[in-house]
Amino acid sequence: MSADTPKDRFKESAEARQADNDNDEEQDLWSGGYSGKAMYGTWILGGIVTIGLIAGMFAFPLVGLAIPVLWVFLSGMLAYKKLSVHYELTTQRFIHKSGILKRVSDRIEVIDIDDVTYEQGIVQRMLGVGTIRIASSDRTHPELVLSGIDGVASVADMIDDIRRKERRKRGLHIESI
Length: 177
Description:
Layout: H1 6-22, E1 28-32, H2 40-57, H3 66-84, E2 85-90, E3 93-98, E4 104-109, E5 113-119, H4 122-127, E6 129-136, E7 143-150, H5 152-169
Antiparallel strand pairs: 1-2, 2-3, 3-4, 5-6, 6-7
Helix pairs in contact: 2-3
């Protein structure tokens, strides 16, 4: 049934706005962290160094002890990166948690995000990983860099889409900010 008078149209519009406000519950959209695929260069370099160390073992047998040390170090690096950062995107906030022993949690309101960009090298594009940069008006993180994100293009698009949606909902013009 369509509204015949301006008063009826205003009433329907107000009811639609109220329905939108009733659905303002915060919902989880995405969560993630550092992807091991982002260390492809490190793994390749580790393999090359291992081959060099194996060749050097014929002249200096003690060099072979460096091989397990190298791979324990590289595995520790990956474990640290995977365990030390975690990200969550909701319909209202972007949450960045960092640290292993001392966990720091920082929240950026989605409406405060000004720009979202992502970077990928040629091999990163093949693997689907990359780095996202979030520019915001948040005081603690005016620029937040998210390294090693798997599915980087879709995650960056998701952050940008929810940012735009929240700004339209609250009546902020994206071009004026």
